[in-house]
């Protein structure tokens, strides 16, 4: 009865799995480069995307579908922070666009719960987009000084014996 919703929900799972993988990859590389604040941002976003996968999977199972845990795309090997942020922003923008369309499709097929789920995800993806957009604006505004400040912050924390960033 809700086959079309299950297809869209699984497409969203694949997109969210891609986001989890990419954001954790970006987290590892930002952390390795000493950019604690950006590393933390990517890690927190990856965790939020994992929660999205869980919510989508729960809905698929409720509709008696099979959850396909396959990422939509491979992780791109990006080490430049600006390129990471540009890709992250583009991913979030695409997800918000797709989820808006899919919310309407689910509503048109008398599946208002899946519609609401997609609408809720749009709000999260738009918030993620805004976070990455702000980081890119900061990099444009402050250039390499912006990243240098993050490295200095790590050095200060380590010198004081403080805990590492999340």
Any chance you could write out the topology, listing elements then pairs?
Elements: H1 3-32, H2 36-62, H3 81-108, H4 112-142, H5 144-159
Describe the protein in words.
By secondary structure, this protein is mostly helical. The protein has one domain: Ferritin (Up-down Bundle), CATH 1.20.1260. 80% of the residues lie in helices and 0% in strands. It has five helices and no strands. The chain has helices at residues 3-32, 36-62, 81-108, 112-142, 144-159. The mean pLDDT is 92.
In short, what is this structure?
The protein has helices spanning 3-32, 36-62, 81-108, 112-142, 144-159. With 166 residues, the chain is mostly helical. Helix 3 (81-108) runs antiparallel to helix 4 (112-142).
Query: Low-confidence segments, ≥5 residues, pLDDT <50?
Result: none
Please indicate the percent range of residues in DSSP E strands (runs of 2 or more): under 5%
Query: Class in CATH?
Result: Mainly Alpha
Shape verdict: elongated
- Number of strand segments: 0
Helix content: over 70%
Secondary structure class reads mainly alpha
Q: Based on the coordinates given, report the CATH architecture.
A: Up-down Bundle
Largest sheet: none
Task: Note the quaternary state here.
Answer: single chain
Number of helices: 5
Rg of Cα set: 18 Å
H/E order of the elements? HHHHH
CATH topology-level fold name: Ferritin
What number of structural domains do the residues give? 1
Mean of pLDDT: 92
Distance between the termini: 43 Å
- The CATH superfamily is known as Ferritin, core subunit, four-helix bundle
């Amino acid at each position: 009865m809700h086959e079309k919703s299950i297809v869209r929900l699984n497409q969203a799972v694949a997109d969210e799995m891609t986001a989890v993988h990419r954001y954790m990859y970006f987290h590892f590389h930002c952390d390795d480069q000493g950019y604690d604040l950006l590393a933390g941002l990517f890690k927190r976003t990856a965790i939020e995307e994992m929660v999205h996968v869980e919510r989508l999977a729960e809905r698929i199972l409720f509709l008696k579908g099979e959850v396909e845990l396959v990422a939509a795309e491979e992780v791109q090997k990006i080490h430049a922070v600006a390129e990471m942020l540009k890709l992250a922003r583009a991913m979030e923008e695409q997800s918000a666009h797709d989820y808006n369309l899919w919310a309407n499709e689910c509503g048109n097929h008398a599946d208002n719960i899946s519609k609401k789920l997609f609408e809720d995800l749009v709000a999260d993806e738009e918030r993620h987009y805004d976070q990455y957009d702000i980081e890119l604006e900061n990099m444009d505004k402050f250039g390499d000084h912006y990243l240098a400040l993050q490295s200095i912050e790590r050095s200060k924390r380590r010198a004081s014996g403080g805990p590492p960033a999340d």
